[in-house]
Amino acid sequence: MKDIFIKDLRSPGSVEGVILGVSGLNRGKDKNGNPYYDIEFIDVTGRIFGKIWKELVIALGSNIPELGKVYKVSGNLQEFRGALQISVSDMEKVKDGSYNLEDFLMRAEQSHVELESGIVAYLNRIQDAGLRSFVERILLDHKKDFYESAAAKVNHHHYVGGLAQHVLEMLNIMDSLKGFYSHVDYDLVIAGIILHDFGKVQELKRTGFSFDYTIKGKLLGHMEIICEIMERTIVKYQEFKSFAVSGKYTLLKHIILGHHGRLEYGSPVEPQTIEAEMVSKLDDVSWKMRAFTRVIEDTGLAAEQDFSKRDFAIGVPIYLKKESGIARMPYYILDEMDSDSSEGSVEVHRKPVLKALKDEKAKEKTRIEQENLL
C-alpha cells in the first residue's frame, strides 16, 4: 500500500522505501567521465527528479530502471538549482500487480463524460454541415484513443485525458473572444481546435502510467499523422468526396499545419489566415499556462527559493512567490525610489532603476550560461 506521495516530499531529508513510478531516464557523464542517470519519478500527485550516481549505476549493472515500472526508492532529498530532487542510494523493483495503478496514473481534472460533452457541444455549433460531419466522423472513429490520450509527453497536459482537456480549454478561451473579432470564421476555428493536435492519438502511446513517443510519432509527427487520418477518412467515406475538394478543407488543413506558428517551431507553414492565427495563439496560451502550472506544482509553492530552475519548454526560470505590490523588489531599486523625493518618483530615478534591472538581467544570463556548462 502506497502511503507517501510526491506531494508529501517537501523538505530535504532522508527517503526510505518510497514507492514511485519511473517516467523518464537519461544516461550521462559528469565532468570526470563518471556515469550517472537523470531519472524522473511520478505518482498521481506529481513528478520529482532524481540522480543515480556512479556507485549505484555500477551496482545496477544491466538492471537499469525501466520506464513505466514501479520501485521502492531510498536516498536523500536535496535541493538543487531551485528544486528538490532525490539522490538515489537504492532502488528495488516492485512486482507488477502488487500496487494500485491509480496511485500513479495522472488524469485530467474533468471526467471523460465532462470532456466529451463539452467538446461535442462546441462541435454542434458548427453551421457548415459538411465541415461538422467530417470532424464528427473523425472523432467517432477514434473516440477512445482521443479521450484517453495525453497532449504531450512531459510539457503540458501530460496525462490521461490531457489532449481532450487541452482542446476544451482552447474552445472555452475562443468563446470569450467571439465578441471582439467579427471577421473570423468560427466554424473553421472550432474544427481546427478539435483536430490541430489530433495526430497525438498515434504520436504518443501509454505504457502503464507513462506516455512516450511511438516510432511513427518520432518519424512523422502529429501534424502529418492527422493529415493522414483526414485523407483516409475521405477515402473510406464517399460522402466526404465533395468536401475534400472544397476551400474549407484546404483552410482546415492550413490551420492544422500552421498551429505551431513559426517554421522553427515545427510548422511547415506559418499562419496566413485569421483563423489559423487564432488557433495558433489559443494553442500557445493553453499549453504555456499548463506548463507554468506544472513547474509551480513540481517545485512547490512552499519552496524557499524565489525561482524554479530554468524550464526547457518555457525557456526561463519561473517566479514562485506570490507577494503583492513591490514587497519583493530588490533593495537597490527600493533605495532609489524614495517616496519623500521632491523631484518626482519616476523620471528622476529612471536611470538608476534601469541600471539595476540591466545588472539583474546580466546576472541571470551568466547563471544560465554556467548551467549550460554543467
Question: Can you walk through the features of this model?
Answer:
With 374 residues, this protein is an alpha+beta fold. It has 14 helices and seven strands. The protein has helices at 54-60, 112-123, 129-141, 143-148, 162-177, 186-196, 200-203, 215-220, 222-236, 241-244, 247-257, 274-299, 331-336, 350-373, and strands at residues 13-29, 35-43, 46-52, 70-80, 83-93, 204-207, 210-213. The protein has a five-stranded mixed barrel. A two-stranded antiparallel ribbon has the order 6-7. Strand 4 and strand 5 (83-93) form a beta hairpin. Helix 5 (162-177) runs antiparallel to helix 6, helix 5 (162-177) crosses helix 12 and helix 6 (186-196) packs across helix 12 (274-299). The longest helix is centred in the last third of the chain and has 26 residues, at 274-299. The chain is elongated. The two termini are 39 Å apart. The model is unreliable at 324-350 (pLDDT under 50).
CA(first)-CA(last) distance: 39 Å
Please state roughly what percent of the residues sit in beta strands, choosing from under 5%, 5-15%, 15-25%, 25-35%, 35-45% or over 45%: 15-25%
- Count of individual helical segments: 14
The major sheet is characterized as:
5 strands, mixed, barrel
Mean pLDDT equals 84
Rg to the nearest angstrom? 24 Å
H/E element order: EEEHEEHHHHHHEEHHHHHHH
Numbering strands along the chain, what is their spatial order in the largest sheet? Answer: 1-2-3-5-4
Count the strands? 7
Structural class: alpha+beta
Q: Helical proportion? A: 40-55%
Identify low-pLDDT runs.
Answer: 324-350
Judging from the principal axes of the Cα atoms, what is the shape? elongated
